[in-house]
Amino acid sequence: MAHKYTKDDDKRKQDHQAENQLKNEAEQQNKTAGKHSFSKETDHL
Fold this sequence. Notes:
By secondary structure, the protein is an all-alpha fold. The protein has one helix at residues 16-33.
């Protein structure tokens, strides 16, 4: 039997893979849209 105050047996594991997949898909969409692009050429000079 689990300890009364220290363990939560009903807690579900977080699905990090699904979360990261959503982040990667959003990143791909931003990349194709040209957002957050990095360029060494400066625009302000």
